[in-house]
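Structure catalogue
Derive tokens from sequence
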Amino acid sequence: MRRIPLLCLGLALTSTALAQPRPTPEEPAEAAALPPDAPKTTLPEIDDPMLAPLPPAPHVVQSWQEALRQVRSQSTTLARSVAQVELASAQARQALARALPTLTGTAQIQRHLLTGEGVFFSSSGPQQGTIPDPQTTWGAGLALRVPVIAPRAWHDHGTAKRGARAAKLSREDAERRVIAGVADSIVSVVTAERVAEVSRVSLKSTLSTLDLNRRRARLGAASAVDVLRAEQEVSLTRAQVVSANEGVRRAREALGITLGHSVPWSVTPQIRLDQLATDASAVCKPVGNPDVRADVQAARARLEIAARNEKGVDWDYVPTVDLVSNLNYASEERFSANGKHVTWTIGGVLTWPLYDGGLRYGTRQSSAAQARLAQEDVTDARRAARVESAQAKRAVNFAKQNLAVSQRSREIARQSSRLSQIAFTAGQGSSFELVDASRRLREAEIDSAIKEFELVRAQIAALLALSSCDV
């Protein structure tokens, strides 16, 4: 009786180029992954619920451009950074208002509820009657105040403008981080789906092995130990499928959050991962030097603001001079200073705070401490940018080396699995060797798939580590 090989040597997902579209679940992955010299066999049909792929997410990313559109309209990180820029601009306008003239209009009306009898003066002379007369009076006025010498207001306006610039730099850094997060999430989803696909193909292979061992046991060609080993392998593979499926769900949820949604998002199989870096470079330009990255520049801008705040306390000791003018109208001429309805005054006000209970001294100490903290933030930002840049460049070479080693290990595992199958078919090998070789091949396939996407992730991270992005 001709023996049927026990294991499909072609676990899915060979080391194809990342530029090729990912295979859809309908494609026969086993046939595509068979080694050239593997024997062509027909395995019994396996029907198991865990072999079915996960259904697609409610939303699917079709392209990098679509992901950017979703981020622009839905990302709370970008919306928060834009709001911070608007807030800083509004604060700069508020600071400017303190150095500009102010015009205030007032109006008042009074009625005396308690009156008496007495003499009051009118245009016709003294008269006896109810006082005050009239009981109701009203007036209106305009007050103009023009700052002539306001050094603290001028200084604060300059500080506020620098705050607006710092907010814009922080927004640029937020855009860079958001783009990096989107690219990383897309790669994570593709990686998780590829690992899940490998796990399902492995489960199908182990189920075939279990079925054939049971057939052989019924014919007396295999022992109960062989069947038990196959069952153990199936249990292990099922656990890997469950874990891989949960990894896909979590990766889709993470992508949805990154895009600004509370529902999972998946990625179309036709997306080209090798184009992600190229697409990202369309909105991110390299800066070359870590010290000019947006987050480092924002930290320096905040340091400049803190230094100006410390210097601004000195202007509190300087007197201010304001030009004031008041135009008033009174309903009763006899109540005005010039005996007419309209009065107009002009003058100057000198304000010199001599003692404030130590407020300025405490403010100076607080501003000095804030400046020291800002200086440390600049140092940390520069260090982080330099280390991140160096690590990103090194990670690309590291990922390439890891991928080469993983691909070589996968080829060795394939050959070992093929030889184990041939030996077992010829009656020279044990079921333990066959199952162990199958497990090693499955692990090598998963590791190689992960290493491929780690290289893509490293290349994108290296691009964005020294870039200025504009979403």
